Amino acid sequence: ATETTRLPRVELLPARALAVADMVPQFPTTQSAVVYMEETTATFNALEKAEAAAYAESAFVLTERTETVRKLTSSLPVTDEQLADVPAAEAYINSRLSYDVRRRLDLQILEGDGVAPNLKGTLNVAGIQSQALGTDPVPDAIYKCFDLIRTNGFAEPDVLFINPTDWQPVRLLR
Residue 102 belongs to what H/E stretch? Predict the structure, then answer.
């Protein structure tokens, strides 16, 4: 019989592209919590000043915040012998496990409820700018939300996450 050669290629199951985690700053830590300062009040009162007049007074309040570090994991039982049997098996497994963790991270960044061990996703953070759809067409509501971010948050929106099912009718508008 002729010899059969297995190609080194693996046909992967279709999986959604990961995009959310790439838009959020990430950094390593060895701590159990991350402590940071949040500016919770900013009163800007700069004024022109006549000679000998009192300076205008501004106020800035910083509040210490703490977020518990959370862990996302995935594992696959495999032996050293299994890894040695097929070249590139370790790379394949590491790639798939890494994808699995990042897939879950994407979901947690958006929808996590903040109850341990979950992250607190943006949908569950109080005070985030929102815009009701109302009777507006979806593109108008998105624009209005971006405008609120510009005027209330003094930031330029640079990313929009929308479910492909929700985006399709917008994309197909005539």
Answer: helix 89-111
Map residue 93 onto helix, strand or coil.
Answer: helix
Is the distance from CB of 75 to CB of 93 less than 8 angstroms?
no
- Is there a contact between 111 and 161 (Cβ–Cβ < 8 Å)? no
Say how many C-beta atoms besides its own lie within 10 A of residue 112's C-beta: 20
d(CA 166, CA 163): 5
Please calculate the CA angle 7-9-14 and round it to the nearest 5 degrees. 145
Spatial separation of the C-alpha atoms in residues 162 and 171, rounded to whole Å: 12
Contacts (Cβ under 8 Å, ≥6 apart) of 138: 166, 169, 170
Q: What is the pLDDT along the chain (174 residues), one digit of tens a residue?
A: 788 887 777 788 888 888 899 888 888 899 999 999 999 999 999 999 999 999 999 999 999 999 899 999 999 998 888 888 776 788 889 899 999 999 999 999 999 999 999 999 998 988 888 888 899 999 999 999 999 999 988 899 988 888 889 899 999 987
Q: Are 84 and 93 in contact (CB under 8 A)?
A: no
